[in-house]
Amino acid sequence: MRRSSLLFLTLLVLWVLVSQANHELAPLRISVFAGGLFVVFAALRMDRGEGLTAVFAAGLLHDAVSPVPFGTHALLFTAAHAFVYHVRHRVHREETLVGVLAALLSNLGIFLVLSFLVGRDLPVGVDPWPRLFADLLASQLALAAITPWFLVLQRRVLGWAGQTPFRTEHRA
Q: CA 146 from chain center: how many Å?
């Protein structure tokens, strides 16, 4: 449980940073979504239960301030975690590039599902797709830039606390 709590604290820091970035980007009418980054470390490098706990809690944190039904982010983050966790034995999960690609693909999937969920409630005649495409492009570029840094941060926070990923399972 200690590792889940530490991982959640890093996700809380990420949530604050993304919220601040979106606050600063608001005058430009652009926003950044980093949902895939909330999933990738836990799915690639943690035990299933511990990672899932942290990811689910981070999803609930997103749900608390989002205009979607409560539990939507938690469900989507959990589904992304399950998918990445399921395929992680087929990739070199310690590689930074694998982490970046997993974050980008997870982010794309979560973003598209959320876009369709929110987009169906818009009034007739409103075309959200140009804005969504700009947000997706900005999100993916930002994610590609910060994912390596954030993966190292998560590993170091666990290390500083005397914890390591892969407590009970063997590395691939």
A: 12
Question: Could you report the per-residue pLDDT of 55-96, keeping only the tens digit for each?
Answer: 999 999 999 998 888 999 999 999 999 999 999 999 998 899
H helices present in the chain, as ranges: 2-25, 35-45, 48-64, 72-87, 96-119, 129-160
Q: CA torsion 37→137→128→62, rounded to 10°?
A: 20
User: In 10 A of CB 129, how many CB atoms?
Assistant: 11
Q: How far apart are CA 54 and CA 30, in angstroms?
A: 28
- Per the listing, tokens 């979504």 go with 33
Q: DSSP character for 90? A: G
